[in-house]
Amino acid sequence: MVSDNEIIRNAVALVNEGMRVTFPVKGYSMLPFIIGGRESVDLVKPVAPQVGDVVLAWVDGCRYVVHRIIRINEDGRVTLMGDGNIAGVEHCHLDEVAAVAVNVVTPQGRHLPLYAPWRVKASRLWWRLLPVRRWILAIYRRTWLKLVLR
Length: 150
What we know:
This protein has 4 helices and 8 strands. The chain is 27% helix and 31% strand.
């Protein structure tokens, strides 16, 4: 049986060769913008990752995550946080950013640009709502997400 880390390493190798890789996302840490277990992301080779980018990164020296960059320090230290998280961040170095997500892939196979103007504005607003995210996510999970996952 092939491990998750082995699959991810192979996906990263393909991305490093210049290929676009569609990669399934697990969990709910990127809600409401990416629904884990239902949607995937298209990954490409990182050129110059920026704050606000959704990336696949090797964090804290122990695992890969698909999360959004919330800070890049002058020394290249990157801070990441999932959109669906209300606390907790991960850290890596710029050279541990393995890929940048460019599209959300729906179950119907549609590739929706992750950096469309409305999505960029929505993600910025979502970041400012961090203090009340807990309640918004609770309502979202109990209503809309239940309808979508049926």
